[in-house]
Write a structure and sequence with these properties.
By secondary structure, the protein is an alpha/beta fold. The chain has 2 domains: 2-110 and 222-269, D-Maltodextrin-Binding Protein, domain 2; 115-217, D-Maltodextrin-Binding Protein, domain 2 (3-Layer(aba) Sandwich), CATH 3.40.190. Helix 2 (44-54) crosses helix 8 and helix 3 packs parallel to helix 4. 38% of the residues lie in helices and 22% in strands.
């Protein structure tokens, strides 16, 4: 009987120790705000729910540069990241990153999105080809829908951001919101931006629909993924992924570009289309 009691006690101690270990695990998450209004509040609910489910602690690291987000994971300062598609490709190559989930906006079935080219309602620019010779604003170098995809769409009509004869000027505003505001404030004739940010700023009344026209919409862009480092033990990665995928059942959640209805699973090969685009652009520039 004494032996049995000791055995039960031993199992109880081991169980308590295992739980304590799980509760003590901490992971750092790095993100680049999707807009000037983007901060931890975009996904505070998601993180809280994931913490509650996994018993992990997730600390956030905010950076303003896409390369800094990649470097944080490469250097081991970040374990989880909120990347744009193009940035993820780089992170998967040099920072051991693995995409695992992407947010779906309320009312939508697909996590993908688009690059929009927008102008003021009264602009003389009526069709996409009319942007030649105008002032173009973009997000930041390295942005998928605010740099890479706009370059691809412009190449389809034989225009290039690096050709001085194609535009009066091209500048990077620093965010999707700033790019849009440059058009609204007459600092730019046309802006290439994310459809997610367009819809989010329309919803929060940053601008009225009658102020802006969309003159061009790109093909579907693979969604900005949540990614984790492969250095995280596989069992912990599985717990994090499962928690993210079921988070919508436990409360309100957000993500890249604002409120999300839920998250879906994504995998590395989903971003091969962007890898091909990057390779094509490099080939055309060489």
């Amino acid at each position: 009987m004494t032996y049995l009691k000791n055995l039960v006690l031993l199992f109880a101690i081991l169980f308590a120790f295992t739980n304590a270990q799980a509760e003590s695990k901490k992971f750092n998450m790095v993100f680049v705000p999707a807009s000037e209004k983007g901060d931890e509040s975009d996904y505070a609910g998601l993180i809280k729910i994931v913490e509650d489910i996994t018993k992990f602690k997730i600390n956030t690291i905010k950076v303003t540069d896409y390369n800094a987000a990649v470097e944080a994971m490469r250097a081991g300062r970040a374990d989880i990241a909120w990347y744009g598609g193009k940035t993820y490709i780089k992170a998967s190559e040099i920072a051991n990153a693995e995409a695992f989930a992407a947010g779906v906006r309320p009312g939508e079935k697909d996590a993908g999105y688009y690059a929009y080219f927008v102008v003021k309602k009264d602009s003389k620019i009526k069709k996409f080809s009319d942007v030649k010779g105008k002032v173009l604003s973009l997000n930041s170098i390295g942005s998928t829908s605010g740099d890479l995809i706009p370059q691809v769409e412009l190449a389809k009509i034989n225009l290039s951001t690096t050709n001085e004869d194609d535009f009066k000027s091209v500048f990077y505003a620093g965010s999707h919101d700033a790019c849009l505001l440059a058009v609204l404030n007459n600092k730019s004739d046309v802006c290439g931006m994310s459809s997610r940010n367009y819809e989010a700023r329309l919803a929060d009344n940053t601008f009225k629909k009658e102020q802006i026209r969309i003159i061009h919409k790109s093909d579907r862009v693979p969604p900005p993924p949540l990614a984790y480092s492969k250095r995280i033990p596989i069992e912990d990665r599985t717990k994090i992924k499962n928690a993210v995928l079921e988070a919508h059942k436990h409360g309100k959640i957000g993500g890249y570009g604002g409120e999300m209805s839920h998250y879906i699973s994504v995998k590395d090969s989903d971003y091969d289309v962007l890898r091909n685009v990057v390779a094509l652009l490099k080939k055309n520039k060489s």
